[in-house]
Design brief:
317 residues; alpha/beta; five-stranded parallel beta sheet; 20 strands; elongated
């Protein structure tokens, strides 16, 4: 059972379906990157709309016998193990459907929580962005503003300075030490300490800049923010998975090992639910690693069960 129909979940399901496992993907239909026009930095698929990548992924999972079910998880919990002692899990959807599985891959993704600046969310994924590798090239040479939201915003400023000479950093009340002020000055990054009151749009509805609390307007075509990243956990609380906080209270996600294994036997995690900063390619790769580890774990359990059965038969023969 795979919870999440994004890159991590579908790639994990693909690996498992190709290994002739019975696989069901629960797809909530609200991928994190839906507002974006295209996925970038993904070899051979650069520039492809994110929803098109997911459409192809669902087709490929189904091609190998996997199932994709659209719905939202209401609850997930461990149930009585099998006769061989293998873990079992029951998952119920909000529409009442239920599924029992031997293992779960949690690939539920995350939610971007934006700063509460009026008008900011209206442009999210287009002219309000966060990742220089996902969208930076597309906004090159434009007037860019970075809205500070913690220490991560300082790194964003230096990375986006690589893409434009016209960069303004709005501190939004976040203290900027003298060392970083000197670095900003050396790179020609303008600093404005008057707080931003709202985002300004032009007559076509495009982002035109920001209005400060003193009434002044600063023209910008692009705004960069560092959203708070929150793993999607709704309905999964019953699994008892451990969580971890990113430094500086910038987000929280599930704890997992290198191949996605968690502290709960039979449960794996992959993608943005555990690696909050992973792009599509990294999430897909993590899903593949988790899928392979799940298949290997199941194969080992099946081999041990077969061996016990043979030995029991001989002892009673």
């Amino acid at each position: 059972m795979v919870v999440g129909g994004g890159a991590a979940g579908l790639n994990g399901a693909l690996i498992l379906a190709r290994s002739r496992r019975s696989v069901v993907v629960i797809d909530g239909g609200s991928p994190r990157n839906a507002p974006a026009q295209a996925v970038h930095g993904l070899l051979a698929l650069d520039g492809t709309p994110p929803l098109e990548i997911l459409r192809r992924g669902r087709e490929q999972v189904r091609q190998y016998g996997g199932h994709v079910v659209f719905g939202e998880v209401d609850s997930a919990r461990p149930v009585a193990p099998s006769e061989d002692g293998d873990p079992r899990f029951a998952l119920t959807l909000t529409d009442g459907r239920s599924i029992v599985a031997r293992s779960i891959l949690v690939a539920s993704g995350l939610t971007d929580v934006l700063p509460e600046v009026p008008g900011l969310a209206d442009h999210w994924g287009h002219s309000v962005i966060h990742c220089p590798y996902c969208h930076g090239y597309e906004v090159r040479d434009q007037p860019v503003g970075v809205l500070a939201n913690g220490d991560a915003s300082i790194s964003q400023a230096f990375l986006f300075r690589q893409l434009t000479d016209d960069l303004t950093y709005f501190t939004q009340g976040v203290a900027l030490d003298e060392d970083n002020r000197a670095r900003f000055d050396a790179r020609g990054i303008r600093v404005i300490e008057i707080p931003v009151a709202e985002v300004v749009t032009d007559q076509d509805g495009d982002l035109a800049g920001v209005r400060l609390v003193n009434g002044a307007t600063v023209g910008r075509r692009v705004l960069v923010v560092a959203p708070t990243l929150q793993a999607r956990t709704r309905g999964l609380e019953g699994l008892g998975l451990a969580m971890q906080e990113l430094p500086g209270s910038t987000g929280s996600g599930y704890v997992s090992g290198p191949q996605g294994a968690t502290g709960v036997p039979g449960v794996w995690v992959a993608g943005n639910a555990t690696n909050l900063r992973a792009q599509v390619g990294a999430s897909a790769a993590a899903g593949a690693l988790a899928g392979a580890d799940i298949n290997g774990t199941l194969a080992t359990a099946e081999t041990e069960a077969a061996l016990r059965a043979v030995r029991n038969a001989r002892s009673h023969g």
